[in-house]
Amino acid sequence: MTGEIVIPVKEQLCHSLYYKKGDSLAVKVESLFTFQPLPPFLYEAAYYAGIPALRPWENSAEYIPALIDEWAGQKQLLGMHFTNRNQKAAIVPMKVSLGVFLQLLYWTNSKPVSLQADHGELPIKPVNLKERLDFITARPAFYHSYIQLSELITETEKQCMKMMALEQMKKKRLK
User: Fold this and answer.
1) Same structural domain for residues 14 and 92?
2) Tell me: the pLDDT tens digits for 65-108?
3) Domain around 11
């Protein structure tokens, strides 16, 4: 399969920071089957639209390291923007970074991202997730939002690594 495909964005991914009703994503067909961390929610958009694609949340241990790497690059960029007090330039990388965090959070829980769901219902999550996410989404260009997002990612990464280690131990016991 080659060429381009247009994926309609379904309600589960509609949010003022990302997509609105009626939006769509135009991507190369091969990008649906070769993992790339950006654009955020690409695989979820395909999933909700019923289009065959990778489902990284079904094998999160394989894909989460790429999200962590993407965050490292975004964090460096954001650090530079906030050091220069350039809030306007920080908006896009903050949206990308928030998308990376949400993928990390949901994939750690073996679920596709849903921006309409109650994130607090996820079993593996940072403390005070709802309040912290509300703060970040209300003020994505603020330095304190960047700090909060950085902490959320660190906490979620630790929980994810713990979960993966426990799964490895469980697999070894079953052998």
Assistant:
1) no
2) 999 999 999 999 999 999 999 999 999 999 999 999 999 999 99
3) 4-49
**Cα 74 to Cα 19, 38, 67, 149, distances in angstroms:** 20, 12, 10, 12
Q: Are the C-beta atoms of 29 and 45 separated by less than 8 Å?
A: no
H or E, element range at 127: none
pTM for the structure as a whole:
0.92
99: Cα within 13 Å, side-chain hemisphere: 24
% helix / strand / coil in the chain, to the nearest 5? Answer: 65, 5, 30
Token readout for 21 is 């009703």
Q: Copy the structure tokens of residue 60.
A: 């999160």
Three-state secondary structure call for residue 93 = helix
